Amino acid sequence: MSSIKSAVYKKNRMNFILALLGSIGNAGIAVGVAFLLREFVDIAISGSMDALYHMLKLFVLLLLVMVLVDSISFVFTNRFICRGMRQYKHMLLKGLLQRSISSFQKGASAQCMSALSNDATAIENNHLEATFELYTYGMMLAAGLGSMLYLDSYVTCCVIVASMIPLLVSVLFSHALQNAERCTSKQYAGFTGLLKDLFSGFTVIKSFQAEAVILDAFERENEALEISKKRRRDLISILMLLSQISGFLVNLVVFGLGAWLCIQGRMTAGTVIAFVQLLNYITMPIEKLPALYSARKASVALMEKGEALLQAEDEALDAKTVMDFRHAITLEHVNFSYEDGNQVLSDINICFEKGKRYAVVGASGSGKSTLLQLLLGYERGYEGNIFLDDTELNTLSRDSLYHLVSLVQQNVFVFHATLLENITMFQSFPPEVCEHAMHCSGLDALVREKGTDYLCGENGCQLSGGEKQRISIARGLIRHAQILMMDEATAALDHATARFVEESILRLSDVTAIVVTHKLHADMLRQYDQILVMKDGRLEEAGTFEELYRKKGCFYSLYCLRV
Q: Which residues, by range, are in coiled-coil regions (predicted)?
């Protein structure tokens, strides 16, 4: 992946150049003002009115040029920062969205939130904005020192020696400030993660009277964050203090030597005034540059952190594209274990034929949901082979797989959007397709009562659990994918609605349905072409309802327990 930093600058090259030219122009104007003041004072002392009038016209002209240059600098600097931040956030989110579901789930979502919020603000202030301030002050310092050398080299050398102190300090402190910025960002991620858990689990916290425990955890995270922020502020304050001290010393040097040279007759009053004016263009950069340099260097660490978040496994460039499901999904001797070494699936051999309906049953923890995750490509570290027709699943592009498969899960996330937007996932579908999906998912009554423009609230807080479940089912149906997978999708529905939804799904034409269910109702199970019975990560039995019932094996035991 190309550097985010280089991409931001490359895509905004013209705005950056014009803004930089504005910074250079400002430095040149600053020098011009000093030299005009020199001539102005010397002319005023000489008493020439014509020359004084001429100088006033030059001052007006310089003022107009200054307004023009400042306008150019202001417009293009702001445009660069605005577009740069937009592109940074876009690139970061685009990269995160391109990660696999598995890699995202294994990563810390709080770190991603921190990168897009707090880190982004720090990058905007301490990198993009600071870049132009650094250039402006740097040009101003160079132009000021160059002009002072032209006026008097001895005084200028003394100024340069005094100016080196804060610059050396900034170099020494930059590494410490960079580490402090990284530490603060890490603490922000932890704090954000705790807030996320707090708000998501508010009901659970209240129900189990865990307020005191959560408050203690909050205090610990908040204290660690504030301590980290204080350490960063302390470093910046030390830098600023040293810069101010150095600026005062430079002022003292210029005023003292200038006065002495003027008394000795080696310098005119106008030159002394010019030195005083140029001194402003020396002291201000001296005060600002160390902190700006250190803060900008520290912000680079945040950009590197953002890039590190995107360093997930990349999909192979030769990943195959399959747009049509023709025959079957075949699992051959599939084994799967999580990273902790716990084996979840053992020697799975299954063939899901196109157009047939499969029910996957078994006790909790038997591997049913994990089986679906493998079929969906969420987990690819399995042993054995999974073929979609003739294509091994690990060689298939994720986009192809998600095009062919729709998933309906038990755990539903509902966006703070309208009912229709949550069903369509903000995509466009013909009205008749939307109506059919809503009907098959049992949403007719809700739509009649509240309409499709009804706002669902944050995470569906305006809906019941059953209503959110129906939205999830409608999402899976509206795409009319060739393969439909359902993981306990009707668990939150009442018996009548669950039965209606399941029958609607089983009646769908040209759809291969793989349904994980704990509802073992004979009249429904008889409608499946095959029932797969999972036990302890193994495929224990497979067959029709009648076959498995007569066998009186694992399925029979499960069925008798549930009836």
A: none
The CATH classification number of 328-562 equals 3.40.50.300
Written as six digits, the tokens of 61 are 């002209």
Average pLDDT over residues 306-321: 64
Confidence (pLDDT) at 141: 79
CATH says 4-309 is which class? mainly alpha
Q: Do 363 and 388 touch, CB atoms closer than 8 A? A: no
| Cβ neighbours of residue 505 closer than 8 Å, sequence gap 6 or more | 440, 477, 484, 486, 511, 513, 515
H/E stretch holding 501 reads: helix 495-506
Alpha carbon distances (Å) from 520 to 101, 498, 523, 563: 31, 12, 9, 7
CATH 3.40.50.300 maps onto the chain at 328-562
Specify the pLDDT at position 1: 40
Calculate mean pLDDT across residues 291-300: 74
Q: Which has the closest alpha carbon to 84: 114, 112, 125?
A: 125
The radius of gyration computed from the CA coordinates of the chain, to the nearest angstrom, equals 35
Q: Say which DSSP state 60 is in.
A: H
Average pLDDT, the chain: 80
